[in-house]
């Protein structure tokens, strides 16, 4: 029995004396919710990845400039040959033809000739209908990706809010449990004195010890909740592992519920705007494919420098127009048009699914908001009643007028009431945040 008492005493002393957060030497950071959201927007990897997609879309816009900018190609070709026909042509191109080169003996047995051909070719688009539509599509796709990036920021913001409020909840629950531990420790000491004096049976003394052990176990679990929430925040905010986060915010309850219809979803919500824009992208994709069936007209300019010694000799140029018309490509274009139409329908269905799902989520969040507010009122009343009941039974227990099980029941009810109130406040704050998220406010 003495060993058991000593073990309980050590556990209580260790639990009350242990730090709630990180060990000494770690950096402590006091953090408000707005500061956490700002840090997430600046540092979160998921948000940065989404912004990189916007950069990719911007790069595709740059690529689309080929629809109106010229393409310039510089090439250098070296040839060694004794082919009679090629040798004569190369001499003509190098401007070194002589009368003797037309001697049949020389023509039939041509000498080996070297040729360096320096060529510059400029291709200027004149009429490429599909490329022009493709450029417009690139701009539209960038707008859609910007909307999705904004929604990603909002989603990460909601996750940060949930973890931040979860950290506050765990700390409040630990405070409630620690208060109960101190109360139960005092009652356990009273029970020990009563048992020693022969006023209480051994079972009553052990019951208080068991309840104390339960509270210690709950405290250890709450410490894990704090560490888990802190680690999650550090990952989302990209903080060092040695940082200890101390939230400065609280679970604030508004006097008035947010206004608005239970089914109100903003048409300007980021993801809905993105799905609308994706429909435009799909329509432009179809237009671009249809435009590819039209003729393409390009102008070109080519200059050539031929010599047996690089960068010298004869030069020439050619200027012209090139027209290409894809008359039939084995039904490939028809298949691409069919695919683009299906993509447009997919974007439309995604939009409708997101909108209808959001209405359901808004209704759910509003119900949760109203219910949690009602729960707060009930929990506050229950907490006050449990406190009064516990105070009364505690005074009765000290005078021997109350049984141990009555004391344990009242203490357990009081602790449970405090945690119920904390949970209801957490649910209210999260329901409010989710309501704003799904409404697109």
TrEMBL record:
Keyword Secreted: no
Cross-referenced Gene3D superfamilies: Outer membrane efflux proteins (OEP)
InterPro entries reported in the protein's UniProt record: OMP_efflux, TolC-like
Organism: Chlorobium ferrooxidans DSM 13031
GO CC terms: cell outer membrane; efflux pump complex
Family under the similarity heading: Belongs to the outer membrane factor (OMF) (TC 1.B.17) family.
Protein name: Outer membrane efflux protein
GO molecular function: efflux transmembrane transporter activity; porin activity
Keyword field: Cell outer membrane, Membrane, Signal, Transmembrane, Transmembrane beta strand, Transport
């Amino acid at each position: 029995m003495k060993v058991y008492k000593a073990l309980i005493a050590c556990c209580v002393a260790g639990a009350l004396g242990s730090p709630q957060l990180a060990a000494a030497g770690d950096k402590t950071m006091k953090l408000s919710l707005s500061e956490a959201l700002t840090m997430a927007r600046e540092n979160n990897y998921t948000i940065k990845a989404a912004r990189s997609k916007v950069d990719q879309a911007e790069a595709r816009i740059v690529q689309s400039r080929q629809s109106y900018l010229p393409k310039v190609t510089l090439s250098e070709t070296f040839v060694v040959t004794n082919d009679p026909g090629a040798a004569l042509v190369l001499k003509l191109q190098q401007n070194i033809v002589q009368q003797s080169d037309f001697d049949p003996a020389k023509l039939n047995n041509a000498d080996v000739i070297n040729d360096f051909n320096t060529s510059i070719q400029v291709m200027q688009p004149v009429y490429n209908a599909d490329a022009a539509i493709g450029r417009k599509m690139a701009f539209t796709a960038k707008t859609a990706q910007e909307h999705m990036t904004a929604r990603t920021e909002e989603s990460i913001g909601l996750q940060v809010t949930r973890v931040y409020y979860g950290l506050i909840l765990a700390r409040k629950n630990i405070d409630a449990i620690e208060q109960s531990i101190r109360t139960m420790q005092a009652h356990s000491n009273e029970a020990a004195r009563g048992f020693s004096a022969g006023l209480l049976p051994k079972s009553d003394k052990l019951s208080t010890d068991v309840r104390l052990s339960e509270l210690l176990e709950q405290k250890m679990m709450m410490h894990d909740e704090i560490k888990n929430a802190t680690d999650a925040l550090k990952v989302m905010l990209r903080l060092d592992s040695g940082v200890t986060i101390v939230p400065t915010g609280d679970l604030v309850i508004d006097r008035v519920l947010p206004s608005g219809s239970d089914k109100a979803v903003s048409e300007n919500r980021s993801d809905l705007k993105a799905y609308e824009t994706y429909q435009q992208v799909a329509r432009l994709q179809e237009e671009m494919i249809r435009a590819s069936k039209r003729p393409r007209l390009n102008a070109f300019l080519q200059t050539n420098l031929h010599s047996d010694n690089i960068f010298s000799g004869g030069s020439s140029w050619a200027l012209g127009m090139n027209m290409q018309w894809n008359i039939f490509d084995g039904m490939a274009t028809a298949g691409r048009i069919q695919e683009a139409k299906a993509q447009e329908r997919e974007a439309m269905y995604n939009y409708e699914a997101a909108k209808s799902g959001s209405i359901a989520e808004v209704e759910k969040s509003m119900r949760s908001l109203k219910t949690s507010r009602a729960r707060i009122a009930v929990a506050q009343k229950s907490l006050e009643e449990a406190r009064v009941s516990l105070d009364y039974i505690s005074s009765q227990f000290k005078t021997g007028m109350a049984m141990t099980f009555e004391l344990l029941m009242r203490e357990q009810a009081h602790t449970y009431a405090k945690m119920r109130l904390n949970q209801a406040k957490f649910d209210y704050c999260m329901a409010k945040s989710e309501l704003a998220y799904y409404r697109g406010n």
